[in-house]
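[Automated response] Your request has been received and processed.

Submitted sequence:
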Amino acid sequence: MDVANACYWNAVELNNEGVTNLEAGRFEEARSTFQSSLMLMKFALKQEGQRALGSVESTQGAQSQQAPEDSSATSYEWSSNPSEDTPVNGKESPIVSCTPGSTELDLSGPFIYRRALRIYYPTLTSIPSELIEESAVVLYNYALAHHLEGTPSSQDKARSYYELALTILGGQRVQLSGNHLIETAILNNMGQVCHELCDFCASQHCFGRLHNVLSTIANSCMESYFDANDWQGLLTNLMLPQPSLAAAA
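Generated structure:
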């Protein structure tokens, strides 16, 4: 196994280990693991780029070149949903979210999509050429680990990493294992973070984009790919009232 492949497989394993930490509320360990995964993913991409360049140079003048490896064998799976009272490194979580399924709609704060993503690669023999989906997934997980910490500084970092993950996706709706849409999770949680940071204009912009995505999902009859409570929670964010300018001041 060459360096690029070894880095990629290790990055995937670290991502999945981070998801396990996240499920257990070990957010500090999860952040450290996701950070290591991102570093290895970046190094794997760099090594693969150099290898591809060498391959092109060595085959100049040839009539044809081998087609790139199909990355469709990579699949993803949402993690279990940590409860709101999951300890944060031994302490009660400061994050408060509305509770889907309750008889009364709780608008004290937007719903947080709490599920991370595991990466599986059952049939891949070499790494995908660009690692767009994988990088976005690890960044989303990394952002979520900061988000659920609930402190002001962690909220700022979560927003930055959510934005970076969305940028990597290029605004395209990436289908993940059974049409799971990572863009949905990112836009929802970005809207929640912006609301928490009192950037209500940015929050409404995120939820506006989320509305368009959810409409597409509903029109395609794909809402069943989300847990029923999660789906209801996503919809409640679309009804979140816009604070008045006086209240926001």
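Summary generated for your ticket: Helices lie at 3-23, 27-58, 132-147, 152-169, 182-196, 200-219, 228-237, 245-248. The longest helix spans residues 27-58.
If you did not submit this request, please reply to this message.
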